[in-house]
Structures are given as structure tokens and as C-alpha cells.
Amino acid sequence: VFVSLIPLWICVVFFVLCLKCQRPKNFPPGPPPLPILGNLLNFSLDNPMRDLERLRKCYGNVYSLFIGPKPAVVIDGVQAMKEAMMSKAADFAGRPEYLPKHHMPISMPVVGMVLADYGLSWKEHRRFALMTLRNFGLGKQSMGGNTVCTCSNIICQVLFGTLYGYNDEFIKVVVQCFKENSKIANGPWAMLRNIQHFATESSSEIQFKSLIRCQQEIDHMLEMKTQITYDDRHNMPYMQTVIHEIQRIANTAPLSVFHSTTKDTELMGYFLPKKQLKGTLVIQNLNSVLNEEGQWKFPHEFKPENFLNDQGEFVKPKAFVPFSAGSRMCLGETHTAGYLQKL
Questions:
Q1: In the chain, how many domains are there?
Q2: Contact 78, 33 (CB under 8 A)
Q3: pLDDT digits (tens, 9 = 90+) for 65-88
Q4: Is residue 234 assigned to a domain?
Q5: Measuring CA to CA, which of 77, 198, 270, 304 is 20 to 30 A from 251?
Q6: pLDDT, tens digit, for every residue of 231-275?
Q7: Residue 169 lies in a domain
Q8: Was 330 annotated as part of a binding site?
Q9: Segments forming the whole domain that contains residue 338
């Protein structure tokens, strides 16, 4: 009798799993999920970003996926990103409960600001971090060696829970490693490598001309002074365009850090439930914004002209969001922008 009931139990379990993968009413559309696996088979291992773009073309700028049995909403394009991360920032500022923070040992209860869920504690910590970094001169022209060391020390305290002395050998090594890695990662040869996969017949010539023009701006500034400072960026518009175009093309964090809804909310006419304490997982596809048709003059090419207006002046389009947008935008944006300018 028990053996004869096995097929029935299998059918019941399969039916329950199918119910778990059902989309709520007015939830964003998406590909049909499989029990247990969800939509994992909709993605290839070699290029999942290409699969996300394929799904966007099929279902629109807001669509849903199942990562295993868990539903997730993918946000594409400037309009949807602006509504979620800026207009309704508090509704989408949560962090999913199943991010790696919950797999830390019990002896490491502190998750920091990046992985911390949205709430009063997170607001206070972020406000304090912004105020402290600004007081130390983050992003300012006067930010020198000691200040860089201090800011690196603050970051080490957040990461490792230890505050080192200014003359400590460890913090000196950390700062030196960051400097050397930045030179390698952001130098001229790395610039060429980052844009290499966008190659066309004329791309090599474009890259070469861009580097030459940057060097000409640098040489022109050095004719008037012995050292270039961060404030000189206003007199070097083409240098700024190249730096920003490299960040747009490189797109080092194409899906940013996952968000979750903090309450029942709507996005582009769709309903996203909080689902008790869990919240709906929200994935920002920054790649779709940084390459969106209609937002860039040359969305799929390396062209510094994407950041130049008709008068040849540097402008930053609203679609430039390599650090995400809204209340949970990366704290390091100002520091990164200033450091790249100095390099």
C-alpha cells in the first residue's frame, strides 16, 4: 500500500512546488518558472547579461524571474530605475534576507552599511559615514596623503573591525596596494583593454585619438603650472569625458547590490508585495541604463562624445549610473571620481 502511494505523494509535492512559483496578481510578467529551479535554465553560464537583455526585449523594462522558488523583479531603463531608486527610494531600499550577511559566523554580527537592511540604524550609520568622509576632505582638491590614509583606515575599520595607527605598517601597505592597483586598473593600457571588446574597424583609431587628445589637455595645463590638481578638471573637459566613458563601458557592477521592497508598493503600474518580512527581491540592471537607446549618442560604442554637448562642454547624462542611484548609491562615488581624475 505504501509503495502505491508514492506516485500520489510525488504529484502532491510537485503541485505544491508549482503553486510556490506562481506570480501574485498584477506582478511583473516573466518567463514561466520550473519547480525548484525557477528560471535558472533561462540563463547561460557564458553570458547571463545577454539573457537579461533578451528577456527585457520580450517582457519590457520591468519583468520578474524566479531564482529557485524565490521571486525577483528586474528593473531596466532610466524611467523604471528613476521611479524605483529615486521617486520611491524608501520602498526599494531594503536588502534581501538571504544575502551573504546571514551566512556570517555568530562572532561577526556586524554587516556594515552595504548589506544592512533599511532602517533607522542604517540611516544613522550612512549619515555619520558621509559626514565623516566629507570632514576628512573626501573628493576635495586638498585631499592629500594623510587624508587618504585616514579614509583608508576608516574603510579598514568597517571591513576588519580594527582601527590602525597612522604610522602602522599594515595601513601603509593597504594604501600603497590601493595606489598600485589603481594605476594598473585605470592606466592607459587598462583603458584600452576595457574598451577592447567594443572593437570595430575604426575603434582603434578612436581610442588612439582619445588618448592623444587627453595628453594634449594635460600638456596644456602643465604649461601653466607644475602640478595638476583636482580642481583643474573644469579646464579639462575632454579628460572628464574619457574618464566617464571608461566607467560607462567598463560597468564593473552591472547588477549592483540586490535590493528588496520594504513595503507593498507599485512600479510602472505593477504590484510588488513586501510578502510579510521578506520583501520582493529587486535587481537593478545598470547595464541596460548605461547602454540604453535614446539616452546616449553612441550607446554601444566607446565614444567620449557621449559626455559632450554641442558646445564641446562636459555634461553628465541622467543615464550615467555606474554607482546605482538614490539613497543607497555607493558612498565611494565621490572618492572614485576624484581619484580617477588624479590618476
A1: 1
A2: no
A3: 998 888 899 999 999 999 999 999
A4: yes
A5: 270
A6: 777 888 888 898 899 889 888 888 888 999 999 999 999 999 886
A7: no
A8: yes
A9: 2-118+187-342
